[in-house]
Amino acid sequence: MRQEANGLYTLLSHSLPRMGRVSGWPVFRSICGWLRHTWDNVDLPVRTTLHGFNVLVNPGNIYCFIVHDCPQFNAPLVQLVHEMGKVKKRPLMFVDVGAGIGDTVLLVKERCPGAVEQFFCFEGDDTFFTLLRENMKQFSDVSVTKTMLAREASRVRSLVKHHPGTAAAIGDDWVNAVPLDSVPLPATATIDILKVDVDGFDGEVLAGATETILRCHPAIIFEWHPKLILATRSDLFCGFETLAECGYSRFVWFNNIGTFSHFTGVSNRETLQKMTDLLLAINYRRDEHFDVIALHSESEIDEIALAVMNYARAWGEKK
Q1: Which of 62, 108, 204, 259 suits 98 as a labelling partner, its CA being 20 to 30 A distant?
Q2: Domain that holds residue 296
Q3: How many Cβ atoms sit within 10 Å of the Cβ of residue 25?
Q4: How far apart are CA 314 and CA 233, in angstroms?
Q5: How far apart are CA 194 and CA 84, in angstroms?
Q6: Structural domains counted in the chain
Q7: Is residue 57 domain-resident?
Q8: 163-173: pLDDT as tens digits
Q9: Going by C-beta distance under 8 Å and a sequence separation of 6 or more, which residues neighbour residue 268?
Q10: pTM, 2 dp
């Protein structure tokens, strides 16, 4: 493992999120600004505590700030794991596409302890994968794979970090990609939850996972971000069309800070186009997009319980 940043940055990772309330005060504004600049310009990974685990984060990554300022961030995912556990009555199999540094695994382990039997993590970015592999060494129930996933074995645009915490397939270079269906998983693994968060490439990943989806009927949570979908030159609607063809007819929509938005059935292009136009019109404000939970028509998961998020909210309120 390469050298880590010194302890100053670990201190900043713990202290900066707690300075939000005073950062607007004139006497502290300059100090907070300088400290944030210092954090943003660190050039080595920082060791810190995230979701109760000792891990490394990449330079400038603001995930620790987000979860401090917004305790309900990723609450839909937490609630989904909880609801699926109630239905299956056993530990779950979880596939994480776009695993980053492993923050989803850490989140689930903290907020739904014991709920998942095995995590299968996929990450295509070199920097994130190096940290993912290092961070997941402490767990015997997590496997990590470095690969780009797409609808078919092909060459796709390379990943570029459009901010320090995430990357999108918008590069000028071309790299190899494979469909999820071609990735060997244990023959006995029945995937219960499929999480896809790949910054605009989610539909392409889903289109390459149809065999897995048809076999397992997992609950699926994915990001729908029209601005990034267009940036990756992908089809705005192929994710929904793929899922409809696989028997998914129930969709629960959440905004990008984790609050419920609305329900839909099988979405048609006209409705999705209106939502696309809306998001593109307001995107300059806070990078608005949706996280969508897709349920197979035969799923026993309660959509109302997903929307209300009592379990996830109760955990956030305890913090």
Answers
A1: 259
A2: 70-318
A3: 10
A4: 40
A5: 12
A6: 2
A7: yes
A8: 777 889 999 99
A9: none
A10: 0.90
